[in-house]
Amino acid sequence: MTDRLELRIDGEDGRETTVGAARDTTILDAAHAAGYEITATCGARGRCRSCRVKVLEGTVPPPTVQDNVQLGPEAVRERFRLACQTKLLEDTRVRPMPPKAESGYQILGGQAATTAMALDSGVEKRLITVEPPKSEHHQTSDLDEVFNALGESLTSRRVAPELVRDLPARLRQYKGTLTATLFRGQLVDIEAGNTSEQAYGMAFDIGTTSIVGSLLDLATGEELAAVGMINPQAPFGADLMSRIAFAQFNTKNLQTLRGKALNALNDLIKEACGKAEVEASQIYKIVVVGNTCMHHILLGIDVSYLGLAPYAPVLRDAQTIPAAELPLKAAPRAHICTLPILAGFVGADALACVLSTRLYDSEEIRVLVDIGTNGEMVIGSRERLVACSAPAGPAFEGAQIRHGMRGALGAIERIAIDEDVTCGVIGGEAAIGICGSGLIEACARMSEAGVMNASGALTRKTEDLPPAIGKRLVKSDHGAEFVLVWGAESGKGEDVTLTQGDIRQLQLAKSAIYSGVAMLQKEMEVGADDIAELLLCGGFGNYVDVASAVQIRLLPEMPAERITYFGNAAQMGAQMVLLSEREWQRAGELLESIEHVALAARPDFQELFIDGMNFGAPKRRDETEERTAVAV
Amino acid sequence: MTDRLELRIDGEDGRETTVGAARDTTILDAAHAAGYEITATCGARGRCRSCRVKVLEGTVPPPTVQDNVQLGPEAVRERFRLACQTKLLEDTRVRPMPPKAESGYQILGGQAATTAMALDSGVEKRLITVEPPKSEHHQTSDLDEVFNALGESLTSRRVAPELVRDLPARLRQYKGTLTATLFRGQLVDIEAGNTSEQAYGMAFDIGTTSIVGSLLDLATGEELAAVGMINPQAPFGADLMSRIAFAQFNTKNLQTLRGKALNALNDLIKEACGKAEVEASQIYKIVVVGNTCMHHILLGIDVSYLGLAPYAPVLRDAQTIPAAELPLKAAPRAHICTLPILAGFVGADALACVLSTRLYDSEEIRVLVDIGTNGEMVIGSRERLVACSAPAGPAFEGAQIRHGMRGALGAIERIAIDEDVTCGVIGGEAAIGICGSGLIEACARMSEAGVMNASGALTRKTEDLPPAIGKRLVKSDHGAEFVLVWGAESGKGEDVTLTQGDIRQLQLAKSAIYSGVAMLQKEMEVGADDIAELLLCGGFGNYVDVASAVQIRLLPEMPAERITYFGNAAQMGAQMVLLSEREWQRAGELLESIEHVALAARPDFQELFIDGMNFGAPKRRDETEERTAVAV
Questions:
Q1: Of A10, A607, B141, B601, which is the most buried if we count CB atoms within 10 A?
Q2: pLDDT tens across A240-280, in order?
Q3: Which helix (H) or strand (E) segment is A149 a member of?
Q4: What is the ipTM for the molecules in this complex?
Q5: Which of chain B's residues have a Cβ under 8 Å away from the Cβ of A140?
Q6: Which domains are assigned to chain A?
């Protein structure tokens, strides 16, 4: 995979324009840089549909919440995207298809216009003009006058005292011009003057490894800032189980983790507000998703029993909590919405993935797979949904791998094995280690090249290999190793290798995912051929080479074109709930309908897991290569 | 009025027993002390009806909330009382009427059995046994198991995170025996073990002068402790207007007053819990009534405009506020319920009085009058209710009166004028001043004796008076004065007098009340004869001599037997709301239906007020004396 990609644009006049662009450039920017004009009426903010394109070739990049808001899920599934929001991940051919009029749009986009996600965040800002009470006889209160001006949009007359403490002064400022903010029909803010345009929200996905957040304009759905950081709890345990162990039966440690999470969210809110130049006091709704452990820690809930069979969560329902109770620094009466939890290891993040991928609405069987230290998988369609989790461990993040590292500068991410080994290193620098996606690719290539056999054992028959390859099979204090980069060429002055132990770690990790999906297939009684699409969710999916993942049997044996990278589906689910109360309601419905299979408690799982340890049989090699060519 | 009273008991066998008792002794205690047996099955706790008596002669003492709970408002109106709760205020004749059976009871008490106030505080404690989640597949959460055990009494699955933080440990203690507390169908507490008998609430009436509170058992209605203190805000202003002036446009001063109120309530909660030996953490509901200013200050709401026409409150609706937000120290998820406010000077206390006197349900026209620095009055029946307020000022509390004092030891409270003046002093000590009720009586007697004329001027014609009386009319640096107690006999070494200025102060105060009631009568188009009953509410009413109050035209000219002392009606209203959600709901309905008349804004008020300044015409003297004989 190269960082320089090709974008071909099918013009309306039938002419094709080809432009080059860096990976992660938006289609709109790439086109504009090359002088090709695509109209972006809203100023490339994802607030209109004028820059709509249809992706004709190349994997369709993951949709954004703005694609859903502007185009609707049907159009999104039909490969329509907003050029201003869509980042190039590989060579792509698109056709600009601005909706000329609603009628024309209907023909192009099918039902899209009617099924676009409605913006109904539950937060409503109303500009009102209120006069102070005048009559001494039939007395009203300042608040009554506010309520009268609000009319029927108010469904509750309950109000927090703090909202009205300064109301008399505010009411008499600016000639009674006030902006009242309602959340779910209840008054949550009264500001002097007109601030009706300023209604913001944050969507957070708290992962074990990293936390991402986005600041959205609740009225338009526009993303005003995207922020993220490494989860500052990491020093207290790299993966879920170590995090749980740290806090288990130890309230003080739990509080430590909680404090880290709260500070992180508050820092990210501050950072996002700084970037977007908005006031945190005008953030009225915050949606948080995350796995069960992260969810519980954030709310200060004892996680002790999350680490003990049957790994039951303490709380499953979606909750709406005053931000001040956590506390998060937003509007004083902002609310935090947490999504429901399916099971101890199938958390609110998994549910958010189901929401954003709309698996619940699929006519065909689809699978979503979120690869992480704890993998989460859901299979199904509108008929039935089944979820499970698999403890993949941190191998995919480069942990517990001798030369493992995160996907940062100096990490091997691509490998070719021919007469010798050639490595692609992030940033083009000298290799200092190998990241998760590199590990997958290395094993795929080593398996194909016969450097190791189907069971993952490094071969002893070096004589069957090209000489340069054979030399790379060495023995050291760490046992058998395969040298990817010799010390002389490496960035750390020693050989960068994969040890037999590393391969075993990867096998455990990839079998966790593979056998998890296999169990779900078994539960649903469907083969790989029955799966219309596998949606790869989560940050890791962005970097993994799909063909390699299929080759090493991390993902089920299915054609690469049926495997789609969906981006951070959990975060997108959070954004959808932030913008739409209907999605929030749906989350509650999904909690009731999604079934859960506990792999470890299934006697038939052991067999699937052992089978999943194997790499693809060598005979599959040619087939797989063909698929690879199609996919990348 | 003497402190030694006579209680006559009409026995079931037709024999009458007469016992002596101190004022404020309960009928039950008085009877038992004299060896007369009245059964008190519940141990004199107001929790059963076995000690029921009917008051045959004497003013019926004010009912308690327990009378309402056990006997119902109809029986209360028919002069039934619980002997264990009813304190003797004057000579009284009663007949014990224990309900023998429900049928017998029906005959005696009419509809009482069916109309007794239902105990539905909204707080429900449920003893449940919960097993930790067992299934790994169809996972439930700890909280789900609690919810399942609670069944349909739960109307909301929302829960504050803090309630479930330690749930895992609690659930696994005592073999899963838990006590769940619901408030209005929502979970507010989960305790390990069985605490289902411990559900308490507090009812507070925050007056400008004093704060009273009672701790009630929510399951039985029993009063476990009664507490009270002088309002610690008093040093910052004796009456409402000075309190408002102190806090007006000065947030810091408002916070000072608020802090005083919060500390007072927290101290009273602590004191009540100490007395009753219960845990404050098991107080789940707190009802607070008070005038608008006290209400706003407690909630930290700007009172600046309460002091400026049209004196509009900032907030009128009843509110339910988490105790932690104030904060009050009760159960972590306790709720504070404030009653609605009718107008800036007709506060939640007035509404509570309407609730407890059941004015809204009266077939005949009744008037309730709460005498205080700010008098509040409501007239009406089930057809229509009209309220007003009148700034009486602090004269009735002895303030702004030269020798004025509170009703404490050494205060003149009773006066007779014959050939000379005889004073009754609280505690039988040497007089050091005069209290509000003494002031009223002094003016009544002075008016009758011709010491002053109908317009309140001290007479100059001393020759028409008995010599000893004439000598008492003196002139000093303070102008004309009437000496009540000569310095030689007084407890402070100087004459205790009433000055012409004092009389003017009293006139302003009593006319405020009198003309307020007159305005309400005018608004309702009813004369004094049309008023079936005048209910005297508030602490002051306990001490005032009704006949004297009528004589000086503080109260309207009506026979004393139609004037009833109802006790602290505001506090009783708070207790009723504490025990009954129906009453809480009714309070909201009353807010909509009670009309408000602003006296100062009525052009016809001035005339009424000037007329109200006059004392009774001398010709009425004999009539009034007759009435007095009936009343006391």
A1: B141
A2: 889 999 999 999 999 999 999 999 999 999 999 999 999 99
A3: helix A142-150
A4: 0.86
A5: 312, 316
A6: 4-115 (3.10.20.30), 123-192 (3.10.20.880), 200-348 (3.30.420.480), 358-394+507-631 (3.30.420), 396-500 (no CATH)
